[in-house]
Each structure stands twice: as C-alpha cells, then as structure tokens.
Amino acid sequence: MKRRFDLIAFDWDGTLSNSTALIARSIQNACQDVGTTVPTLEQASYVIGLGLRDALTYAAPDLPQDRYNDLAAAYRKHYFASQHELVLFDGSLDMLRTLKERNHFLAVATGKSRRGLDEALAHAQLGALFDSSRTADETASKPDPLMLRELMQEMGVTPERTLMIGDTTHDLLMASNAGVASVGVSFGAHDHEAFEPHAPLFVAHSTQELHDWLVTHG
C-alpha cells in the first residue's frame, strides 16, 4: 500500500486523549495547594505538552525553585486522582487501527512521564497498537527534537518519512526542529491560529477529519 509516511508519531494529551481540561485544572489546584498565584485556564493549558518541570516553571513563575518538587507532587496528586475519568477522543481507536492496517509504525511522543503514559495506555488498552514511545522524563522535553530523533533511529525511518501530530505549538516546533512534517489538531490545548508559523501540512478540527486526511495523504 502506497504511503507517504512510514512513522507517525502522536502527542497524547489533547491529541488522542481528551485530557486538556483535567491537566489544566490539576495545575491550577496544585498552585493553590502550595500557595502561589493560580494561573488562568489559558496559561495552564499553554504548558500542556511540555515536561512537568518546564510546565510548572512557566505556570508558577513566582514560586521559589526549591518549592517546585512540592508543586509537582501536588499536581500528580490531583491528576492521578482523576485520570480514571479520561477517555479517548471519539474515533481515535478506529483511526489507530486503520493506520496499523496500513503498516505504519505508530509512536507516542509526549510531555507526560513514563509512569503517566504507561498508566494512560493501560487504561485505554492501546499499548499493543504502538511500536514505541518517548516521554519527557526519559529524554529531552519538547520542543527539543531529541525524542523524535530517537524514535526515528529506533524505527529506522528518515525525517522525510516521518510525521508528527499534535495539538500544541510545542509539538509542531519539535517537528520542525527535527526536520519532519507535522499536522496540527485544533481540539486540544492551543489555539490553532498559533500553528501557522510552524507550517503544518494540515489542521484537523476533529478526529474524523484527521483520520480521513491520514488515509488520503499519510
């Protein structure tokens, strides 16, 4: 079957998993717990996709650095208490199965921790669909291109045959830094109008739109 991309890497939160609201709310609650300024919903959503340390530094700039561990612990408490409520965006499972039938390599490139991603994959029963994954606590955080470069090396795929799909400018900038093509989704954390400087091939406004584009152009 003819295809343009051999490796398709997905961000997790806000791209496959409908988790943006939970993450933003957990960041806000954690900031309140440690007594620092609570970010707006927009500010809390902006950091989604970054590694936890980078995200909390941005979301709580007034907090002394020696309190970041406390903030991270508070965030994890709130997030893991509710992660069982998370669901995939409608159509994500069918889309991934279609791509596997087309013999694409599938990967996750996420700002989550390894523990967080493994628990999310187990909850969604998706682990068998992905050939590999990288998390921010085991490699460089977005928008550094290292996690994509590691995935390409592992799969033996060149940048020209690799596609990154994500809902944030962090995802698209990482793709650009790695020399790979990108597709944005508008239903996650970032306003899709901010995607334009990063020149995605396409911006999908639903999982069905993404599915259809990948079948035709992927």
Entry keywords:
218 residues, 9 helices, 44% helix, alpha/beta, DNA polymerase, domain 1, 12% strand
Describe it for me?
By secondary structure, this protein is of the alpha/beta class. The chain folds into two domains: 7-18 and 89-217, HAD superfamily/HAD-like (Rossmann fold); 20-84, DNA polymerase, domain 1 (Orthogonal Bundle), CATH 1.10.150. Helix content is 44%, strand content 12%. It has nine helices and six strands, in the order βαααααβαβαβαββα. It has helices at 20-34, 41-46, 52-59, 68-82, 92-101, 114-124, 146-155, 169-178, 207-217, and strands spanning 7-10, 105-110, 132-135, 162-166, 181-185, 203-204. The chain has a six-stranded parallel beta sheet with strand order 3-2-1-4-5-6, sandwiched between helices. α5 (92-101) packs parallel to α9. It starts with 6 loop residues before the first strand and ends with a helix. The mean pLDDT is 90.
